[in-house]
Amino acid sequence: SPAACTPFLTHLCLLLVPVLMAAPTALGMEVMAPTTINALNGTSVKLSCTFNSCYKVENKQFSLNWTYQECSNCSEELFLQFRMKIMNKQLDRFGNRVEFTGNPTKYDVSFTLKNVQLEDEGTYNCYVLNPPDRHRGHASISLKVLTQEPPKHDSTVAVIVGASVGGFLAVVILVLMVVKCVRRKKQQRLNTDDQKTEEEGKTDGEGNPDEGTK
Predict the structure, then answer these.
(1) What is the pLDDT of residues 72-82, one digit of tens each?
(2) Can you tell me the distance from the alpha carbon of 52 to that of 73, in angstroms, rounded to the nearest whole number?
(3) Residues whose CB is less than 8 angstroms from the CB of residue 139 and which lie 6 or more positions away in sequence, other chains included
(4) Are residues 173 and 23 in contact, defined by beta-carbon separation less than 8 angstroms?
(5) How far apart are CA 177 and CA 25, in angstroms?
(6) Cβ-proximal residues to 79 (8 Å cutoff; 6+ apart), any chain
(7) Cβ(113)–Cβ(96) under 8 Å?
(8) Per the UniProt record, which residue ranges are transmembrane (predicted)?
């Protein structure tokens, strides 16, 4: 029935959103995070953020910023940062309730917010830079704090369908990532070769002043 289809489609969309968000773009690395997370007041919640990169993570170059925005027009407040090591910026609103639970070497920069409060609602921005990738990746999460647990729906069919479709999309995304990484590294090699050729041409053009008199 139409009434039964609505929760089914809702669950299916929620399952596929993180996978669809992982689709590669033309601008360097990709950062993936759920667009919205619901948390029950007083509980702990994990704000998941992962990224894809063609390069291995090196702590000396890798950087991460987590910021908080109370509203769309509000300024961003930095509360968690990675520069060689993880550094918590103890904002008054969070105190010591922020715990980094990711692992950058495994392309995971998630954190857990403990004892969630109503005033924690807002937008959480995840910024990642992993040189030699030139573009900084970014993803946003809208956190909604609930005062009571929402009613549960039977999502068995949605899970099965979502897992099947999600698995297929994951394979497609993996293939696209490999192709993109190969193209990017090839382009970087071409740029390097062109630069060397140009430098060699300048050197040949200068020549040897004695050669012209012989």
Answers:
(1) 899 999 999 99
(2) 29
(3) 21, 31, 32, 33, 49, 125, 126
(4) yes
(5) 9
(6) 66, 67, 68, 88, 89, 90, 91, 94, 98
(7) no
(8) 157-179
Which CATH number is correct for 30-146, 3.10.20.90, 2.60.40.10, 1.10.10.10, 2.40.50.100? 2.60.40.10
In tens, the pLDDT along 34-65 reads 999 999 999 999 999 999 998 999 989 999 99
Backbone angles phi, psi at 110, to 5 degrees: -75, 160
Write down the domain spans for the chain.
30-146
Residue 86: which of 67, 71, 103, 107 has the closest Cα? 103
| DSSP structural state of residue 103 | B
| Residue 156 dihedral angles phi and psi, to the nearest 5° | -60, -50
Query: In the 3-class helix/strand/coil scheme, how is 142-159 assigned residue by residue?
Result: EEEEECCCCCCCCCHHHH
Q: What region does 28 belong to: left with phi over 0, alpha with psi -120 to 50, or beta?
A: left
CA distance 37 to 139: 13
Q: Are 15 and 34 in contact (CB under 8 A)?
A: no
Question: What is the C-alpha separation between 20 and 34, in angstroms, rounded?
Answer: 10
Burial of 163 (0-12, 13-18, 19+ CB in 10 A): exposed
Closest CA to 39 of 127, 113, 139: 113
Q: Is 95 left (phi over 0), alpha (psi -120 to 50) or beta?
A: left
Q: Is the pTM of this model over 0.70?
A: no
